[in-house]
């Protein structure tokens, strides 16, 4: 990767707050080394079951490895990245990389979008044009956004924290600094996975510049419900049908679906294997949640799904080439035991989109309790945890709809 040290007009090149243009340029030797390591993989025997209950299946990983080593072309995604305006700026002592695309439409609403784990800015690339250029995608000019998509600290092309303290609350504060540095005095925020935790913290901090948040993984569980699901207890009496489904799905996540979260939350530095083996890294990333894995496994069996083989490998390859497997994992250590899915007390306006194959489908009842200023709630017909990646049209439409009432409020105040 390379950084263009040309500095925007009017900024001081010695000033840490300078916004510096950035381009990706991976040496060919690194790609050759990647393919060499893939081909040298020491494979285990096949799983002893006929499903994925023991983890990512050997056939899936061998199909992924064959494609990665022989057909996958990193230069395609590199070109797509470099066709976008990318920048780096220092915030709180750490370099933060971000994409910044301004809409051509007047009165576009500034929006910062945060990815998750095992993720990167690649996840959000499909929603850039629908959000900044809505008239080309069936939307109205009045729904346009100026879009900022940062790489989280320790992920992708952002800096790797050299000391503790970079958890979601600090990231939330950094994003406000970033948006203000770009000249935005009022803005909104969106996120899924870790991005959802970050926007919840932005909502808790309630910076005056932040008008509202949109989340596709809302923190909605009452603390006692979250604790009961974690303990493995049967669903409490008195839950509605929707609440019981959400409870049982969350319980499955805690019992069978988040082993990686415990490992990274307790002992991230031990994961040398995923920093040393590209296939090890890929398998670890694929094992995020059962429904996402089913989607990805079907792709590597040759079936058509919302994600392509290149989508999956673009995301993994960025982590490999930037050597961010462990620096990304430490985010779990920073936040371990503090609650991902529980209601956190957000009191600013919130829009929520519920995708059916998310870790849990958030019931309206708990969502309204968790977010007393709920301005949008919608259940989608299709899609899962990585909504921007898998269902960019649905998510783009949801973000437009979710923030529409805030735009009307702004227009009323301006008038």
* Major beta sheet, strand line-up: 1-2-3-4-6-5-7-8-9-10
Q: Using only CA atoms, what is the Rg?
A: 21 Å
Global structural class: alpha/beta
Oligomer category: single chain
Main sheet attributes: strand count, strand direction, barrel closure: 10 strands, mixed
How far is the first residue's CA from the last residue's CA?
Answer: 47 Å
Given the structure, what is the number of helices? 17
Which ranges are low-confidence, i.e. pLDDT below 50, for 5 or more consecutive residues?
4-13
> What's the total count of β strands?
10
Percent strand: 5-15%
Helix content: 40-55%
Given the C-alpha coordinates, what overall shape results? globular
Q: What average pLDDT do the residues reach?
A: 94
The SSE order reads EEHHHEEEHEHEHEHHHHHHHHEHEHH
Key phrases:
single chain, 13% strand, alpha/beta, 45% helix, 415 residues, ten-stranded mixed β-sheet
Describe this protein's structure.
By secondary structure, the protein is α/β, with parallel strands linked by helices. The chain is 45% helix and 13% strand. It contains 17 helices and 10 strands. Strands 1-2-3-4-6-5-7-8-9-10 form a 10-stranded mixed sheet, with helices on both faces. Strand 7 (187-191), helix 6 (194-205) and strand 8 form a beta-alpha-beta unit. The longest helix is centred in the C-terminal third of the chain and has 23 residues, at 392-414. The chain starts with a strand and ends with a helix. Mean pLDDT is 94; it is low at 4-13.
